Amino acid sequence: MKNTKFSEMTIEELIKNQKTLKTVNTIFAVVLFMLFALNLFIVFMKGFSAMNVVPIALLPILFLNLNNLKEIKKELESRK
């Protein structure tokens, strides 16, 4: 994704980015939840391993995307 500020984008670009981010966040959240569940199962069956920290390491990506989504929504509301 370009390093463009949201204030420099057109309304159409903002709406397109908002739809894309919503879809990506939903899919990513579902996959991350499944990964958490699978890791819990693996921990109970085989014990802890280094791979069990992967979902925790990926969690900030979800929060960054949610923050970007909130900023896009704020920018769209300010333009109305």
SS field, number of helical segments: 2
What is the helical fraction, as a range of percent? over 70%
Count the beta strands: 0
Query: How much strand content do the residues show?
Result: under 5%
Low-confidence stretches: none
Bulk shape: elongated
The rounded Rg comes to 17 Å
Structural class by helix and strand composition:
mainly alpha
Mean of the pLDDT scores? 91
Transmembrane segments: 21-44, 50-69
Keywords: Membrane, Transmembrane, Transmembrane helix
Protein name: Redox-active disulfide protein 2
Q: Describe it for me?
A:
This protein has 80 residues and is mainly alpha-helical. 78% of the residues lie in helices and 0% in strands. The chain is built from 2 helices and no strands. The protein has helices at residues 11-46, 54-79. Helix 1 (11-46) runs antiparallel to helix 2 (54-79). The model has no long low-confidence stretch (mean pLDDT 91).
How is the topology of this model organized?
Layout: H1 11-46, H2 54-79
Helix pairs in contact: 1-2
Annotation keywords:
transmembrane helix, 80 residues, Redox-active disulfide protein 2, transmembrane, membrane
